[in-house]
Amino acid sequence: MRDQAAKVLDQNWTGRSTVPSRSLYPHQWSWDSAFIAIGLRHVSISRAQTELEWLLQAQWPDGRIPHIAFSPSVPRDAYFPGPDFWRAQLSNGTETSGIVQPPIHALAAWLTHEADPAESARRGFLQRVYPGLVAWHGYLRDRRTIGAAGLVAIVHPWESGMDNSPAWDSPLARVTPAPAGSFTRRDTDHAAGADRPTDLDYGRYVQLAATYRDNGYDDRETPHAFAVEDPCFNALLICSEHALADIAVVLGHDPEPHRRYAAELTDALVSRLFVAGMFRSLDLLAGELIPADTVAGLIPLTIPGLPVADALLATALGPRFRLGETRLVPSYDLTADDFDAGRYWRGPSWFNTAWLIHRGLVQLGQTAYADALRADLLTLAEATDFAEYVDPLTGSAHGARSFSWTAALALDLAQSTRPCGRR
Question: For this chain's UniProt record, which GO biological process terms are given (predicted)?
Fold first, then answer.
């Protein structure tokens, strides 16, 4: 399995970064690259470091790390929305999207460093990436803190990384979609239409992105029709702030600002988004929690010292997610009337969210559950040819095959069960 996983990463390597999928996702994706680096550190430290360093070449002057860095060697219409839609080009010539994805990058950088601290020090890896990572978190803190409690907001469903989540249905309902004939989807050229978002939802995604673009990607001036505090996004920001504190110690900087911000975010996350044993997203425009229980609400298990971890674990083990009984971890409440085992983020299990929850279980000392989830992930990764995601009831493969983060995270769990970094 290790050899096959490494082969997938080799096949998807472009020389400076790794594409998620040669067919469906032919460019560099932001949080994909972070997960990929976590696996690459077991294959090649230099490639893992380069993966993250190359992504930072696409960082904007305001600090944001865009969710796509477009490759000039790929036809401009191979993916939609492509560079001609986003119209975002940096001074170094890099073309990007204008939205972001969950901030797991600092954690990935720390884990990459820990895999070989001597080589990291020799190459000055942490010194090179730390300023960009601090600027990235600064952008989120300064430009995306919309609500009163200090949590960071996403302004497009794609920014959650869980694009088609049922949690976005009610906020999206107020968005008038782009006209059906104004764009051409490319995702359904490579994946079953029944597994992908509907044309109606895709039209809404396009309209939100176009409005942001037409307002110069200005977070303060754009009339956002979608603004949500997402528990997964904020949980990964908290974990990455802890990682930045560890990096700061190695570099001789003061770690306390990172630890303080992580503590403030954790307090806000629990007080604002935790209800009935579960974290839920908050629709800032409606001013209310969204009553959809998704895997995003379980990702705070990764937060060191989470005060409600026991209650959250009980929810994961309960009828809504049945951790240990289903394959990996379902992306949506199994008891919901609109649960769909095959459609993108509306039920299927994903390898990256399973990896995150595994990390949380190990930190909590839940060895039996962690070992079972690890074994399931490794078995499914190999059996499905490293599928993008799987049916949580049958384990059948969906989406792309030879998917990079599936291979990378399987490689990581095959290598070690110990979570590196701050506990």
Answer: oligosaccharide metabolic process; protein N-linked glycosylation
